[in-house]
């Protein structure tokens, strides 16, 4: 499960997904909400976030769901800057408006568990979140979303909520019950944090081999505290084998296995679009110079769909830029496609100048009604790799720590063809 400090960005993406279903990106009020999201993400102190809370209260022409989404994002930002008490206050205020908000029940429970606070209430809230998630299975899917995609979203959500419930039980010392819930969680959502929790529960119930296997695998993914997890693994490994010999090799093999699995998952997910011609476009860059995709025929092209309000996008862009720097002049073109609308041009320019990314940035229109729709983009960041003949060969959705390695491997392959 994604938690703080990643929680803030996950809250943004999950909340914006819900808002997008309501047509957030195709009406003026959606732009108001996105502007507020940007202000929250850029706030650096409690005073700024307090003002943002006042702004949200004063927004008259947004839906109840949009208001709840903004409060949820605000709570995550309070947590990110280290103000847990204000985060708790915002979460509690959201629950007063919406007592069955499963996302908030889940996230509040997890934060309590991390702090060792209110564990009885955390158990109650996290169990309730699990029940609410299970009810979604037979519920109505959002308009415009396939049943398969909806069921996948609900499955992962259930896994995340079961993880929180299991982690609360673990923190209460109910290790056998925790193990049961965490095993169910990991079957639904093979997330590194869930696997880390599962590894600790296996250790507490006497299964050292299972603990070592799962903690090793979890370290191949993105965790809240890699250093702490590795120290815990080393202690358990040494308890089991009285030496650390062989552990580094085990970690290397786990990393290689994870990379291969992720690549296979990407290929399976992208099967519906990979192998088809990439739709041509004519888009302006930040200085209004036009670019056509077709002008780069005979070169390998990476398209990276992103936005400044998207935390995972900001994490992924340095990795994309690394590949750009490595292969520029060798037959690779990288085009970043921003999805915030042309009226955000100056904001995007400022971000690019401050971040130092050196590939071309194009204005792709507002997310949901821009060029992203032509490419079937359902979430960002999404990255496409296009071969010299203009055929889409790979697609990656979301941020991964090894994205640069995956892209480099694919670019190398396509440059040789």
Briefly say what this structure is:
This protein is an alpha/beta fold and 417 residues long. It is built from 17 helices and seven strands.
Topology readout:
Layout: H1 7-21, H2 28-42, H3 46-58, H4 64-80, H5 84-97, H6 102-115, H7 119-136, H8 147-171, H9 175-188, H10 192-204, H11 208-218, H12 226-241, H13 247-269, E1 282-284, E2 290-292, E3 300-306, H14 311-327, E4 332-338, H15 345-355, E5 360-363, H16 371-374, E6 382-386, E7 392-397, H17 403-415
Parallel strand pairs: 3-4, 4-5
Antiparallel strand pairs: 1-2, 3-6, 6-7
Structure description:
With 417 residues, the chain is α/β, with parallel strands linked by helices. It has a five-stranded mixed beta sheet. A two-stranded antiparallel sheet has the order 1-2. The protein is globular, with a radius of gyration of 22 Å. It has helices at residues 7-21, 28-42, 46-58, 64-80, 84-97, 102-115, 119-136, 147-171, 175-188, 192-204, 208-218, 226-241, 247-269, 311-327, 345-355, 371-374, 403-415; strands at residues 282-284, 290-292, 300-306, 332-338, 360-363, 382-386, 392-397. It has two domains: 7-252, Tetratricopeptide repeat domain (Serine Threonine Protein Phosphatase 5, Tetratricopeptide repeat, Alpha Horseshoe), CATH 1.25.40.10; 276-415, Glutaredoxin, CATH 3.40.30. The longest helix is centred in the middle third of the chain and has 25 residues, at 147-171. Helices cover 61% and strands 8% of the residues. It has 17 helices and seven strands.
């Amino acid at each position: 499960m994604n938690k703080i400090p990643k929680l803030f960005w996950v809250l943004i993406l999950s909340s914006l997904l819900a808002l997008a279903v309501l047509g957030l990106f195709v009406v003026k009020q959606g732009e108001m909400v996105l502007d507020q999201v940007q202000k929250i993400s850029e706030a650096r102190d409690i005073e700024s976030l307090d003002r943002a809370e006042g702004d949200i209260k004063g927004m008259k022409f947004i839906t109840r769901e949009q208001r709840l989404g903004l409060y949820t994002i605000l709570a995550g930002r309070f947590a990110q800057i280290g103000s847990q008490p204000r985060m708790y206050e915002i979460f509690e205020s959201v629950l007063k408006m919406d007592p069955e908000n499963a996302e908030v029940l889940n996230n509040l429970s997890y934060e309590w568990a991390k702090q060792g606070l209110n564990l009885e209430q955390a158990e109650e809230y996290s169990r309730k979140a699990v029940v609410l998630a299970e009810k979604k299975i037979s519920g109505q899917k959002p308009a415009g979303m396939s049943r398969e995609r909806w069921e996948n979203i609900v499955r992962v959500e259930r896994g995340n909520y079961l993880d929180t419930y299991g982690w609360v039980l673990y923190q209460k010392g109910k290790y056998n019950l925790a193990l049961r819930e965490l095993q169910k969680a990991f079957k639904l959502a093979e997330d590194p944090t869930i696997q880390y929790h599962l590894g600790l529960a296996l250790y507490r119930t006497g299964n050292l081999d299972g603990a070592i296997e799962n903690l090793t695998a979890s370290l191949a993914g993105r965790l809240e505290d890699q250093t702490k997890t590795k120290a815990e693994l080393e202690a358990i490994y040494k308890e089991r084998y009285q030496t650390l010999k062989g552990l580094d090799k085990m970690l290397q093999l786990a990393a290689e296995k994870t990379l291969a699995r992720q690549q296979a998952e990407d290929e399976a997910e992208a099967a519906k679009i990979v192998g088809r011609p990439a739709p041509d476009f004519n888009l302006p860059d930040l200085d209004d110079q036009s670019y056509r995709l077709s002008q780069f025929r005979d070169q390998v092209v990476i398209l990276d769909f992103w936005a400044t309000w998207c935390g995972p996008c900001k994490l992924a862009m340095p990795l994309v830029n690394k590949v750009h720097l490595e292969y520029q002049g060798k037959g690779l073109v990288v085009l970043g496609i921003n999805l915030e609308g042309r009226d955000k041009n100056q904001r995007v320019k400022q971000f690019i100048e401050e971040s130092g990314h050196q590939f071309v940035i194009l204005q792709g229109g507002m997310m949901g009604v821009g060029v992203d729709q032509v490419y079937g983009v359902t979430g960002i960041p999404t990255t496409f790799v296009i071969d010299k003949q203009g055929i889409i060969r790979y697609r990656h959705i979301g941020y991964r720590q090894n994205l640069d390695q995956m892209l480099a491997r694919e670019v190398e392959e396509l440059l040789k063809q």
